[in-house]
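In the previous lecture we treated proteins in isolation. Real proteins rarely work alone, and many bind small molecules. This record shows how such a complex is specified: first the sequence, then the SMILES for zinc ion.
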Amino acid sequence: MTALASTEAIPTEVFVPSHPCAVRQTPHGAGVFAIRAISRGARILRIDGRLQTHPTRYSIQLDVDVHIECFDHDENSNSTASTQMRSRHPWRFLNHSCEPNARVFGRSLLARRAISAGEQISFDYTTTEAEMAEPFHCGCGNSNCLGLVRGFAHLSPAQQRLRGTRLAPHLRRLLVSDAPSTADE
Ligand SMILES: [Zn+2]
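The predicted 3D structure, ligand included, written as tokens:
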């Protein structure tokens, strides 16, 4: 049982040991930022934690009824302030973008393109989450912004197809099963 003291000050920057990123506190909340240039295709961080059958605000969906959370997640506390949490589970602080610079591949976060030092790292939550535990309004500002982000199940068929190979396997299977038999994989 880990108690995260509510009085603990929120750290402004927590480095992730041997990774090219840090969790930084911004006026808009925490996010993951590149601390050096990251090349296209490189692994930015590894997503590890405890598997559970239901999503939470911060979990990432890996398969049908398989969601990864931090090892010491307390359902009654959404505290994310601790330095240990930020250095051990930085993936929980990844923000969503409808035009992201990274993507989830299995238990890894990979760079979709070259990322400069100082850039915030993001991925598209609808490429892993069928149903968001907590839908929210996206303010990424991209021309293809979804607005209300509720999960893959709420995207139009065109929006689903657009995500194509970035989709986690459990979502890609849904695409394939709905596609005409002539569709290439
Ligand atoms: Zn957006």
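Summary for your notes: The chain has one domain: 13-178. The pocket of zinc ion is lined by residues 98, 138, 140, 142, 145-146 (CB under 6 Å).
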